Amino acid sequence: MTQTKKTIEEMSIWEDARQMLRKAERDGVETAWDRLEQQTPHCQFGETGVCCRICTMGPCRIGKKAQFGVCGADADVIVARNFGRFLAGGAAGHSDHGRDCIEAFHAVAHGETQDYQIKDSVKMLRIAAELGIKTEGRELLDVAKDLAAEFFESFGSRREQVGFINRVPLKQQELWKKLGIMPRGVDREITEMMHRTHMGCDNDAANTLLQGARMSLGDGWAGSMIATEVSDILFGTPSPRMSKVNLAVLKKDQVNILVHGHNPIVSEKILEAVNDPELIAYAKEKGANGINLAGLCCTGNELMMRQGIPMAGNHLMTELAIVTGAVELIVVDYQCIMPSLVQVSKCYHSKMITTADKARFTGAEHVKFEMHNGREQARKVVRMAIDRFPLRNQDRVEIPENPVDLVTGFSNEAILAALGGTLTPLIDAIKAGKIRGAVGIVGCNNPKYQHDYCNVNLARELIKKDILVLATGCVTTAAGKAGLLVPEAIEQAGPGLKEICGALGIPPVLHMGSCVDNARILQLAAMLANEIGVSISDLPLAASSPEWYSEKAATIGTYAVASGIYTHLGHPPNITGSPIVTQLALSGLDDLVGACFVIEPDPFKAAELIDKRITDKRIALGLAG
């Protein structure tokens, strides 16, 4: 079946995106939407997960004519193996990000770098004590050495559980032990999944999926959680601040640098360099009025949360940011970076710089960042951007107008501070029904959807129902552009949520960080459960990723469900070729862990499903629905 070409209005809900899509057409620049059209219709075997490429007796694909692969594996086994490896990719991505953060922290603790420092020593000491490390009467760096070593242990294979399991309600811990899904070590669980899904190993679909849950829990409660906590220690724990969002944050008269990816180890050094008086003077020598830094995707979230740096866009805006013709340099680290950015850059004067050996792109220039040279490399990169400013063709520059204000920086510490240092006011508001529950809307964009239509409309519908929304990742840009991340957005909320948020002076949608910072949401859920004396699965909570696309998003969804949080996805993973796997995901997990996935592409219908779940949880707790 041939798919009708989408109009530009059908591609995105945003005027800045539509303006750049029209410009891309005029400039002859291909975008993700063009390539999606070229790839449609998609392979049905791949979409349903019944194509197996694990060994060279195949590839095999399961259908009516062939119900078994060459080895004898059926559709259930093949789908489970494929999904297990899909989850492994996501767990590896976020957790390896965590490992990079520990490497930086270790270097600081051992005096191996002067380019990075401990910015939040209070948080570091608090976490060290939480993990059983002696802090009283000791030098700060001695504690840091022990804490770095403790974090590394959560990646190993010698323990029965990862360190931050102490945050999980005891009832939930016992359930995980009973089910055999207690995460023992990040690397151990990923390795075991790859082993289990090798030909001739685990050929029981349900058993494979239980390992997927254990591996995902290892990512959520160790890899991602460590990444968040160490980033706060090194770069500062976020607190509320104002910023701006959309392509209008680019400056026509300044050198524009975009940072993109996920790891603040690079972007924080770039920020230092763009504020260097010597480099600002050099930019003026080249004819610019200054240097402007803006973020994309989760690196942008990291800088915005901590430093207030404006956000140019989310995943589907990355190509369009370059189409403005005003970007001198796009500096990337890893994850969610489209290879097409190299080609789009070549259509203008822009240049793409890679910084991590694990994420090189053919055609981009590589400037490797290491612990000992971050400041030096950042200055080199910013100077490269300045040198490109005179090459800009001002006749091809078109920057949308009117950036949108937003409030960012709602770490758990900031939320507690707003509540007076205790969760009691939040719990009282939940009991009174003024806040009926909370939903984390997280994750990506996917060109199969109208860009940000589902993300924005789901958030709007939920706050109308007095449900607090927590946003991370690419949803942040969507909510910000929709005007939902400012206190004035309480006018769009239900009466109870409006009252509570109005009294606290906060928006009804709180920005909690990048996609790795979904661990903040996990921790907040655990804090509430521990305070009330229940499991996370008993709370009126839900999660959603309406426009997801990546392995990481699937892993996030799986650790949310395994942690007891009902999780909505706009479309299913590639598992529908197996009735067993599909049924387990959509209802069977509810019986095991107290939560499951629900699939619904319509954000208005999804809001109703989530609302019903929250009502049911409230009634089970003895609260008014």
Keyphrases for this structure?
Substrate Binding Domain Of Dnak, Chain:A, Domain 2, six-stranded parallel β-sheet, 16 strands, Rossmann fold, single chain, 4 domains
Helical fraction: 40-55%
How many domains make up the 3D coordinates? 4
Number of helices: 25
Structural class: alpha/beta
Task: Describe the protein's topology.
Layout: H1 8-11, H2 15-27, H3 32-39, H4 44-48, E1 51-52, E2 60-61, H5 75-109, H6 121-130, H7 140-153, H8 170-179, H9 186-196, H10 205-235, E3 241-245, E4 255-261, H11 264-274, H12 277-285, E5 291-296, H13 297-307, E6 311-313, H14 318-323, E7 329-332, H15 340-346, E8 351-354, E9 365-366, H16 374-388, E10 404-408, H17 412-418, H18 424-432, E11 437-441, H19 453-464, E12 467-472, H20 474-481, H21 495-504, E13 509-513, H22 518-532, E14 541-545, H23 551-562, E15 566-569, H24 579-593, E16 597-599, H25 603-620
Parallel strand pairs: 4-5, 4-7, 5-6, 7-8, 8-9, 11-12, 11-14, 12-13, 14-15, 15-16
Antiparallel strand pairs: 1-2, 3-10
Walk me through what this model shows.
By secondary structure, this protein is of the alpha/beta class. The chain has four domains: 8-61, no CATH class; 75-235, Up-down Bundle (Substrate Binding Domain Of Dnak, Chain:A, Domain 2), CATH 1.20.1270; 247-396, Rossmann fold; 406-620, Rossmann fold, CATH 3.40.50.2030. Helix content is 49%, strand content 11%. The chain contains 25 helices and 16 strands. A six-stranded parallel sheet has the order 6-5-4-7-8-9, with helices on both faces. It has a six-stranded parallel sheet with strand order 13-12-11-14-15-16, with helices on both faces. Strands 1-2 form a two-stranded antiparallel ribbon. α6 (121-130) crosses α7, α10 (205-235) crosses α22 (518-532) and α10 (205-235) packs across α23 (551-562). The longest helix has 35 residues, at 75-109. The relative contact order is 0.12.
